[in-house]
Design goal:
With 245 residues, this protein is an alpha+beta fold. The protein is built from seven helices and ten strands.
């Protein structure tokens, strides 16, 4: 029974953390534009992500109200941090925070503890491309995907899986993300998510077990920080090394 309780507590904690991260994204999106998802693409995608994560409607409405300023004020601001993990792995961390000193200290502590180095903004982002990414559910014939991607102004696409289900990811310039999302929606295709993502130009291959363990633990530590929204790194490693964290 104790093990079951501990497992449930861990699951509840993880769920609460996801809720907090997405709620922050909704607040900032509602504050940066009109507090109406129909006229605010950033807010609409944040709400869609919230619903997919199972966040109750009242929590979503409360976050929108906070962003609109009708339910208290949240002084959240987006800040990007960059640095290196073990083996020269480049890492980009995107945050939403109401206390940049606390966030910087927490991120620096994670880097220091797990063999990394926090650098200045811009020290690694030049090795990535900032792109809009739309994930489409289901198996889509390549001829159809190619035609739709070209007509929607996309740059490229690739087939992959999401939770063992087939999906297609379509990449585009960040300024075209909303238009491409609308294009796929009008085709009646199922959109899993639309997001901005840092895409590494090249990956660093990690082969040393100690370095692999350090990189994975660093990424976990960063991802578990409440202020952190996304963590992106440019590494690849053999499947057995993923089990070391």
């Amino acid at each position: 029974m104790a093990n079951i309780k501990r497992h449930k507590a861990k699951v509840d904690s993880a769920k609460g953390q996801i809720f907090a991260k997405i709620s922050r994204a909704i607040i900032v999106a509602a504050r940066s534009g009109v507090p109406d998802p129909e006229g605010n693409f950033q807010l609409r995608t944040a709400i869609e992500k919230a619903k997919a994560a199972g966040i109750p409607n009242e929590n979503i409405d409360r976050a929108v109200a906070k962003g609109a300023g009708t339910l208290g004020a949240d002084n959240l601001e987006p800040i990007r941090y960059e640095g290196y993990g073990a083996g020269g792995v480049a890492i980009i961390i995107e945050t939403l925070t109401d206390n940049r000193n606390r966030t910087a200290a927490d991120i620096r502590a994670a880097f220091n503890k797990h063999g990394g180095n926090l650098g200045e903004t811009g020290c690694v982002s030049w090795m990535f491309k900032h792109r809009g990414v739309i994930s489409l559910k289901g198996t889509i014939p390549e001829d159809d995907l190619l035609e739709a991607s070209l007509s929607g102004g996309a740059e490229s696409y690739e087939y992959t899986t999401w939770e063992d289900e087939p999906i297609a990811e379509v990449f585009t310039d960040i300024t075209n993300l909303e238009q491409l999302n609308r294009h796929f929606h009008n085709l009646g295709w199922q959109i899993l998510q639309s997001e901005l993502r840092w895409i590494p130009a090249n990956n660093v291959e990690v082969t040393d077990p100690d370095q692999a363990r350090s990189v994975l633990k660093l990424i976990d530590a960063l991802d578990n920080l409440e202020d952190v929204q996304t963590v992106t790194a440019n590494f690849e490693m053999a499947e057995e090394l993923w089990e070391l964290a």
